[in-house]
Amino acid sequence: MGGQYFMEVRSIGLLAEVLFVEHKKFAENYRLYARSHFIKAIELGVILTLYASFGSASGNTLVYILLTISSWFLVLSWILAPFIFNPSGLDWLKNFNDFEDFLNWIWFQGGISVKSEQSWEKWWEEETDHHLRMTGLWGSILEIILDLRFFFFQYAIVYRLHIAGQSRSILVYLLSWACILLAFVALMTVAYFRDKYSAKKHIRYRLIQAIVVSGTVAAIVLLLQFTNFQFVDTFTGLLAFLPTGWGIVSIALVFRPFLRRSEMVWKTVVTVARLYDILFGVIVMAPVAVLSWLPGLQEMQTRILFNDAFSRGLHISQIITGKKAHAV
Question: Transmembrane stretches, by residue range (predicted)?
């Protein structure tokens, strides 16, 4: 995992050129490119998915492909580039081990002396601290305005749910916010009991988790039974509520100095942000895992990355072989 690869190329003058190539772990790539590449790619991918489902070109596949192929290429480039140009980035076993290391990094609690390379929470705090220090008052106001764009997803989608019954009432939008509020209350409850019982009385903590999950399943069953709610609304609703949740987290970071006064509220924000980074990691790893599973791509990647070294080694071996044959 994350070891170094060694390649030696002999020159004609019998001097050795040594090339060291290091495989970057998934967690390290995520720390480097999460905010600059991955999140932007996921946001653009969600927009393209919504356009495919509800846009004017949703009924014509050819038109949709022609209109969005360049945008999808940009999404895939942002996601895959750090791994395609990473030695052994398409190795299935290494990606499996790297993702396991990524999850360990995400869930590692750590302490005061922990580095960002060891703990997600430390890395996240450093990222937000640096951002707050570099942003003034007007920058914070502008950031809040920009983060409001995530709420447009919810406003546009909730009226297309079957449970809305083609209603255009503002009550539908307000009820959707009630669902988000219930989700945050559930997360705050789980976070509270985790801190209180997970260390010694973990059975009670598991019981609270079971109650929350059972309540969610029961609510979905009741909605299916007594309303126009359809199961597909669950996935459509995720496209509406997940961007809203990320927008809330982004705005909460602007008010971090005030929210930290309430330990429970801030822990809830941290918990939600952690879950989002896990989700982002899964989304990023999915296409990488698919490419790693396909046969022949790893060898092709290695050949492309080190084509110059391979070519020089091949030419030199031919020259040396020719000289030896001529001498004989």
Answer: 38-57, 63-85, 170-193, 205-226, 238-255, 275-294
The answer to whether position 28 is within a domain reads no
**Rounded Cα–Cα distance for residues 306 and 21 (Å):** 10
Q: Which helix (H) or strand (E) holds 227?
A: none
For residue 234, is it within any domain?
yes
Is residue 227 assigned to a domain? Answer: yes
Range of the domain at 266: 148-293
Share of the chain above pLDDT 70, in %: 84
CA dist., res. 328 & res. 325, Å (int): 5
Distances (CA, A) of 273 to 24, 30, 245, 247: 24, 15, 9, 11
Q: What's the CA gap between 181 and 146, in Å, rounded?
A: 22
Residues paired with residue 5 on neighbouring β-strands, in sequence order: 21
Domain count, the chain: 1
Which ranges constitute the DSSP H helices of 56-201? 61-84, 92-107, 120-134, 137-147, 149-157, 170-197
Distance CA 11, CA 6 (A): 16
0.70 exceeded by the pTM? Answer: yes
Classify residue 94: in a domain, yes or no.
Answer: no
Q: Tell me which H or E stretch contains 28.
A: helix 26-33
One-letter amino acid of 254: V
Compute CA 48 distance to the chain's CA centroid, rounded to the nearest angstrom: 17
Whether 101 and 26 have beta carbons less than 8 Å apart is answered as yes
End-to-end CA distance of the chain: 46
Q: Report whether 91 contacts 99 (CB < 8 A).
A: no
pLDDT per position as a tens digit, 94-124: 889 999 999 999 988 766 778 888 899 889 9
Q: Which residues contact 259 (CB under 8 A, 6 or more apart)?
A: 252, 265, 266, 269
For residues 71 and 48, the answer to whether their CB atoms sit within 8 Å is yes
71 — pLDDT class (breaks 50, 70, 90): very high
